[in-house]
Amino acid sequence: QNLTIDQILPLEIAAAAAPQTHPTHEPTELVPVVSCSVAMDEARVAEAAVIETVQVSASRLHDNRARPSTKYAHWQRFVAIRADAQQAAAMQPLVAPGAIAVLDRHYNSLAPYRAQQPTLYAVRCGAALLLRYVDFDEGHLILRPYAREFSVQLIPLASHESPADYLVGRVCLLFSEL
Question: Which strand (E) or helix (H) includes residue 14?
Fold first, then answer.
């Protein structure tokens, strides 16, 4: 039939091997890495409170569903913290010491973010910020660690308090160095 290999194959081999000349630039946003106290207590992050910034894909941030309590609906939505050894210990290997946790402070609901999957939250516990799985039962927040050697913690809620008063936000992204 006098056909060449180029006519039989519908793809161009040379084009597949050539490097792409037009790199795709996905829009990114800078998320401020702040102290735990700033993440818990500041509606807007002041420039002086920013320790560092991380670049995150804008689509990864804005694809997150929001469920803010009315108290936090006007807060700056995304901030990040660097997990210290104490925060990471109870959640290892999920959270490594030094990992950066991006918090969605507009998700203060105990409704599961994904069905059949626990949701990791940043939780106010006194003056500390803990990274834990959270349940609610009989007027108590139940903070569950990932590591079995750590105990479950209970936070009793007063009659005028709601779980959202303690949920700083959902951990929507984790960055760890390998």
Answer: helix 13-17
